[in-house]
Amino acid sequence: MKKKKADEKVKKNTGAKPDEDIKETVEVPETGASEKEETVEAVSETDEKEKEVEELKDRYMRLLAEYDNFRKRSRAERDNIYTDATVDNAKEWLLVVDNIDRAAEYKKDAGEMESEAEGVFLIQKQAQEVLAKLGIEEIKCEVGGEFDPNIHSAVTHIEDDSLGTQCIAAIFQKGYIKGDRVVRYALVQVAN
Questions:
Q1: Fewer CB within 10 Å, N or C, the chain?
Q2: What are the extents of the domains in the chain?
Q3: DSSP string over 144-183
Q4: Start-to-end Cα distance in the chain
Q5: Is residue 14 very low, low, confident or very high in pLDDT (cuts 50, 70, 90)?
Q6: Superfamily for the 135-192 domain
Q7: Class (C level, CATH) for 44-134
């Protein structure tokens, strides 16, 4: 009885026979124009996102380059500070080294007692080792060598036919260098 009542309701509401399949047609409005608009919007959103990604990549690369430059600049400044401090300290000690060299030269010439001379030579060797540890080297210059204003300082000038033009005639004080930086110029006499 229950089935009969349900079938009557279906027939009454839909006009179909009971036990028949009910097929309903639903009309869907055309959406061709709105699909195109949605596609255009999606493409423009994608383009905007790509531009944003490119801008972020560019900012990242610039920031990375700036940091790398900062790191290099900081390292160079640190190295320069160390070199400046070493050079300033070495300048003060070079006068002592000069006096040790003079004493060693005097002991060699005078033929003084052997133990005293040996002591002075050992002190001279130790002073040279300390300078070498600091990276400070003696500027190579010799009588008859060519004068170089970048590492020599001309104190006097003489005319001497036995020496060529711009040649070193005498060395008054040794010069020292640390890397490319002159710690103290060699004081020399220049000929011709």
A1: N
A2: 44-134, 135-192
A3: TSBP-TTTEEEEEEE--TTS-TTEEEEEEE--EEETTEEE
A4: 140
A5: low
A6: Head domain of nucleotide exchange factor GrpE (2.30.22.10)
A7: alpha beta
